[in-house]
Write a structure and sequence with these properties.
It is a single chain. With 126 residues, the protein is mostly helical. 48% of the residues lie in helices and 3% in strands. It has a two-stranded antiparallel sheet. The radius of gyration is 23 Å and the shape is elongated.
């Protein structure tokens, strides 16, 4: 089964299979299946053509995949252009949502871990 250019796995339950689509998470997948009158325990290979079309219609109501990614990137670009605090944090590659940066945030900053302290452990081994 393909939805908006993404292949949904046949052997997984649809609640989990729909989550492959960018913009469809745990709760939205359940809502889509309920609105399409499809059982939550069904797998993609067990669907009829009518059920597939109902799921496609429900998913088309939401902004997903490329459109969603485009919207998110344009929102971030707008924040950068108006020099908002969050936009500046995006520009500098720092945490945006108020996390501490003295420790942590290594993945966001891209720092290589450096050993701190006296280094006594290394001296004891000799």
């Amino acid at each position: 089964m393909r939805i908006s250019g993404i292949t949904i796995p046949d052997n997984k339950r649809l609640v989990y299979g729909l989550r492959i689509i960018y913009g469809v998470g745990r709760s939205r997948a359940a809502v889509i299946l309920q609105d399409a009158n499809v059982g939550l325990e069904k797998k993609a290979k067990e669907l009829t053509a009518e059920e597939e079309n109902a799921i496609r219609r429900e998913i088309e109501k939401y902004r997903i995949e490329g459109d969603l990614k485009r919207d998110i990137s344009s929102n971030i670009k707008r924040l950068k252009d108006i020099k908002a605090y969050r936009g500046v944090r995006h520009l500098r590659g720092l945490p945006v949502r108020g996390q501490r940066t003295k420790t942590n945030s290594r993945t966001r900053r891209g720092n290589v871990r450096k050993t701190m302290g006296t280094g006594r452990r290394a001296a004891e081994k000799k």
